[in-house]
Design goal:
The complex is a heterodimer of chains A (456) and B (234). By secondary structure, chain A is an alpha+beta fold. Chain A folds into 3 domains: 11-155, Beta-Lactamase; 215-301; 306-451, Histidine kinase-like ATPase, C-terminal domain (Heat Shock Protein 90), CATH 3.30.565.10. Chain A has helices spanning 2-8, 11-64, 66-78, 107-110, 149-199, 215-264, 268-301, 313-330, 349-366, 397-400, 420-430; strands at residues 86-91, 97-100, 115-122, 125-135, 141-147, 309-312, 334-338, 344-347, 372-379, 383-390, 434-439, 444-451. In chain A, the strands form 3 sheets. In chain A, strands 2-1-5-4-3 form a 5-stranded antiparallel β-sheet. In chain A, strands 7-9-10-12-11 form a 5-stranded mixed β-sheet, with helices on one face. Chain B has 234 residues and is an alpha/beta fold. Chain B has 2 domains: 3-121, Rossmann fold, CATH 3.40.50; 129-223, Winged helix-like DNA-binding domain superfamily/Winged helix DNA-binding domain (Arc Repressor Mutant, subunit A, Orthogonal Bundle), CATH 1.10.10.10. In chain B, the strands form 4 sheets. In chain B, strands 2-1-3-6-7 form a 5-stranded parallel β-sheet, sandwiched between helices. A 4-stranded antiparallel β-sheet of chain B has the order 8-9-10-11, covered by helices on one side. A 3-stranded antiparallel β-sheet of chain B has the order 12-14-13. Chain B is elongated. Chain A binds chain B through residues 283-284, 287-288, 291-292, 294-295, 298, 303-304, 319, 322-324, 326-327, 330, 350, 353-354, 357-358, 361, 364-365, 416, 420, and chain B through 84-87, 102, 104, 106, 156, 182-190, 192, 195-196, 198-199.
Chain lengths: 456, 234
């Protein structure tokens, strides 16, 4: 009973039964049509033949009389054409057989008029026959017919074939259900086992991907991609909490140490103000680091996607250039730009501004005096890009991978927290784009690449 | 004298704010219980209300703010919160607050923003022209004159100067300028504002007899005929 319930809840079984039913119905309709086209058509032809022959013989008798008809019938029976199926009889009004190969009985007279099926005795042998019995003018009866033995055999053959075919179909459908069910179980089993293992805490598990490139392989791949993303996020959280702990504890410890030293100094009154000021500075810095980290986390959570609108990247860059132009000028840097028309991005204007400002900030920070920075936007069919190129020291290829990881800094002598590019990268990813760092030969070319908006 | 109500259940923080504002000539009241606050905010006496978001008993300060606005009161409200996420800020602004400051904050930032709020809510202020000593700017034609000499400014420089003049005699912080003039809501890594101010100074102050734009150490900038004019004004 439980097995039955399990089967009832199996999609494979339901599918297979449904298919089997469909096949059986289709077959039944098919057989019916074949039967109609063969057996039915055959019967119609025989009826027509019987009818034509009967009319011919009636006409013969009317013109030449009963004796000539009898002779004609005997000649027909003796001509060797269709002699194993044809049936003729000419019966007088008092019930005597004048000619023919049919054993005569009284029941024939009652059935006179029209065509019908009857069991008769033909040439001494029982026969299932189709007969046309016609009453002639002098009370005699003319019987014209065909033996239907062959047709009956064909009908039986078809019936038997149908039964066997139906049985075979049902068996095959059942076998198909079993195989389909086992296959489904196998393919889904992998996913379910992986899910259970992950649920038990083994987060590194992935759904095995079968070599068949089918729906399940695609589903498995999607699930694995989702698991990878979750894993990355969790790893990110772990890494971030570690680095945050380190980067927050260090300045805190420094502030505490400085305050404690000042407190224990022989003359606290003289040393405390400076210590307090530096401690406040440290704590304010910490606060801004926290602020930046929270911003990045907020961006990574993806919630800001709800506020996306169509933003002109050129306008964003113009504003950033307006903000940073004065700084570049003060540092003796040449800031140039080139815009592609219609550089539109689906996004959050504040965040895009933040990202572009960060890239400009970096470019200015790392440019040698008298250097130049070029900002341009580019548009092609699939993507929209803003590139910031400086002539600074650039980033070594092996370090480029690590840039954008929170707190990673290429040059620790330059002031900063190592959060700027992490935030740019997070913003790019939020917009479905990416941050690329290329060799500007010399210098660095930082590219923010976004997908072009759907409507072009 | 301006009156300020501080709704904050953290006694240390409330005292810190109160002391700082009192030193600048504010008359300050502290309310630490959310239930009392709901009644007190409706008093017409306040020129500005500083409201903490997370109050004791899991009360969200925004509910008090909503009560206030539901009664049709337009008292300027500055919300303090440790919740910095953009949607939290947006929630605050939607609930009807006039400014939103994230904890921890500097007293300078807080008092500068409060001053700006009071100034903004002053009904008489919708001028066409602003004056400070011999500096005159026309907000409609966007012309700037100092001692009768016309000064050409870039559009952004004009906005910067106009903001400083609207808040003349009061300290404005770099963050406030970045928000108001450039509409940027993040903290740039470099002190960009200083560069813009120095350019503006070059145009406004260099050829004048006395400077109008002053640096307030550790805080920001102030436009005033005489430095330290803040206390005597208002």
């Amino acid at each position: 009973m439980r097995a039955l319930v399990r089967w009832g809840s199996s999609i494979a079984l339901r599918q297979a039964l449904g298919h089997a039913l469909l096949v059986v119905v289709t077959m039944a309709i098919l057989l019916l049509i074949v039967y109609q086209q063969t057996v039915g058509a055959w019967r119609l032809r025989i009826d027509r033949e019987i009818d034509v022959t009967t009319r011919h013989l009636v006409e013969y008798e009317r013109r030449l009389g009963p004796a000539a008809l009898a002779a004609h019938i005997n000649a027909l029976l003796g001509d060797g054409i269709a002699s194993d199926t044809e049936i003729y009889a000419l019966i007088t009004a008092d019930g005597r057989a004048l000619a023919g190969n049919l054993s005569v009985d009284d029941s024939l007279r009652q059935a006179a008029g029209g065509i019908g099926d009857r069991d008769v005795v033909r040439a001494g042998r029982p026969s299932h026959a189709r007969l046309c019995i016609t009453a002639l003018q002098d009370g005699a009866l003319l019987v014209v017919g065909r033996d239907m033995q062959d047709q009956r055999a064909l009908r039986q053959l078809m019936r038997r074939a149908s039964v066997w075919a139906a049985a075979a179909t049902v068996l095959l459908a059942a076998a198909g259900a079993l195989i389909l069910r086992r296959q489904l179980e196998q393919r889904i089993g992998g996913i379910r086992r992986t899910a259970h293992e992950i649920e038990r805490g083994d987060l590194a598990r992935r759904v095995p991907i079968s070599p068949h490139e089918d729906e399940f392989a695609r589903l498995s791949r999607d699930i694995n991609a989702m698991l990878d993303r979750i894993h990355d996020l969790m790893e990110g959280v772990r890494h971030v909490s570690n680095t945050i702990a380190h980067n927050i504890r260090t300045p805190l410890a420094r502030a505490v140490a400085r305050l404690a030293t000042a407190q224990q100094a022989p003359d606290p009154g003289a040393s405390l103000p400076a210590a307090v000021e530096s401690a406040i500075g440290e704590i304010q810095d910490l606060n801004s680091v926290l602020e930046k980290l929270l911003r990045i986390a907020e961006v990574e959570s993806g919630t800001r996607r709800q506020a996306f609108t169509t933003v002109s990247l050129n306008a964003v860059v113009v504003d950033a250039l307006d903000l940073y132009g004065a700084l570049a000028e003060a540092r003796g840097l040449r800031l140039t730009h080139a815009f592609a028309p219609h550089a539109m991005v689906e996004g959050d204007a504040d965040l895009l501004a933040n990202a572009v400002a960060n890239l400009l900030d970096n470019a200015i920070k790392f440019s040698p005096p008298g250097g130049s920075i070029h900002v341009d936007t580019r548009v092609d069919r699939t993507q929209v890009m803003v590139a910031v190129r400086d002539r600074g020291p650039g980033i070594a290829p092996q370090a480029r991978e690590s840039v954008g990881i929170r707190f990673y800094r290429v040059d620790r002598t330059v002031p900063g927290w190592g959060l700027g590019l992490a935030s740019v990268r997070a913003i790019a990813q939020l917009h479905g784009g990416s941050l690329q760092l290329l060799d500007g030969a010399p210098g660095l070319e930082a590219r923010l690449i976004f997908p072009a908006p759907a409507d072009g | 004298m301006h009156r300020c109500l501080i709704i904050e259940d953290d006694a240390d923080n409330a005292r810190y704010i109160a002391r700082g504002l009192s030193a600048q000539g504010w008359q300050v009241s502290i309310c630490s219980s959310p239930s009392q606050a709901a009644g007190q905010v409706l008093e017409p006496a306040w020129d500005v209300i500083v409201l903490d978001r997370m109050l004791s008993g899991d009360v969200d300060g925004l509910s008090i703010l909503q009560t206030l606005r539901a009664h049709g009161r337009r008292t300027p409200v500055l919300v303090l919160s440790a919740l910095a996420a953009t949607d939290e800020r947006v929630r605050g602004l939607k609930a009807g607050c006039d400014d939103y400051l994230t904890k921890p904050f500097s007293l300078i930032e807080l008092s500068a923003r409060i001053e700006a709020l009071v100034r903004r809510s002053d009904p008489a202020e919708s001028p066409r022209e602003l004056r400070a000593a011999d500096l005159r700017i026309d907000l409609i034609t966007r012309s700037v004159e100092r001692s009768g000499r016309l000064i050409a400014l870039q559009p952004r420089e004009f906005r910067l100067l106009a903001y400083l003049m609207l808040h003349q005699g009061r300290t404005v912080t770099r963050t406030m300028l970045l928000e108001a003039v450039w509409d940027y809501r993040f903290d740039p890594q470099t002190n960009l504002i200083d560069v813009h101010i120095s350019r503006l100074r070059n145009k406004i102050d260099r050829e004048a007899q006395f400077p109008l734009i002053h640096t307030v150490r550790g805080a920001g900038y102030m436009l005033a005929a005489r430095p330290g004019a803040a206390a005597s004004e208002a």
